[in-house]
Amino acid sequence: MKKPLFDAVIFDFDGTVADSSEGIFNSVLYATGAFGYPRPSGEQLRYFIGPPLQHSFMHILGADEARAQALVEKYRERYRSQGIYEARVYDGIPPLLSLLREAGIRPGIASSKPTAFIQKILAQHGLAHAFDQVTGVGFSQNEPDKAALIRTTMRGLALPAGSRVLMVGDRKFDIEGAHLAGIPCAAVLYGFGSQEEFEQAGADYIVPSPQALRAIVLGD
Q1: 12 among known catalytic residues
Q2: Tell me: the pLDDT tens digits for 86-131?
Q3: Which of 88, 99, 85 shows the shortest CA–CA distance to 9?
């Protein structure tokens, strides 16, 4: 087997490892409805996949910081009890993870989703031990940005100096965070970003499917 092009691959979670859209959208609607906001459009709902929730509520609804945090808490009320069970892992992800393992490539996660939610979804789908490092956020107001999450994952993977690391995500925030952390990013079209968004953000690779990631990582 030829030497892989990367020693580790760090994945975003929502829109990259799992399609969590149903639970996210329903929980956003639950929160906005509870506070009397008009129903967000489809495009507005899609914005909630990727950025930190508080940022999304401020950006989409014009909520101030305190109201946005209250919306986050209301959102998590439903997501914790129902939304977490509405996620599904993308079909191509488990076989891709197996291929990475066989090639000696270490997989990790860096996500703005609460770590507890990520771990629960992974466990539901038989992937509890599929990643060497899972970095998410807690439940406080001040959470780290994407670049900080990626750096934490890299430290958690305990990679040797000079290791080659690839970030995989589906939004501009993943691309920008990866570049700030000093690594390239592969943007996936099966998630919730677009070709235009990825090109504008300067993605190093743009791929249509989990299967297409194999060629980038393994150098096939």
Answers
A1: yes
A2: 999 999 999 999 999 999 999 999 999 999 999 999 999 999 999 9
A3: 99
Match 């992974």 to its residue by tokens.
122
User: Which residue out of 7, 12, 14, 174 is catalytically annotated?
Assistant: 12
Give residue-wise pLDDT tens across range 23-75.
999 999 999 999 999 999 999 999 998 788 999 999 999 999 999 999 999 99
Tokens of 187: 């943007």
Q: DSSP string spanning 21-88?
A: HHHHHHHHHHHHHHTTPPPPPHHHHHHTSSS-HHHHHHHHH---HHHHHHHHHHHHHHHHHTGGGG-E
Contacts of 13 (CB under 8 A, 6+ apart): 20, 109, 111, 113, 118, 136
Please state, in angstroms and rounded to a whole number, the distance separating the CA atoms of residues 218 and 215.
Answer: 5
pTM of the model: 0.91
List, for residues 92-103, the tens digit of each pLDDT value.
999 999 999 999
Task: Please name every residue paired with 137 in a beta bridge, in sequence order, or none if there are none.
Answer: 114
Q: Which residues pair with 108 in a beta bridge?
A: 10, 133
Q: How far is CA 170 from CA 18, 29, 192, in A?
A: 11, 22, 6
DSSP secondary structure letter of residue 213: H
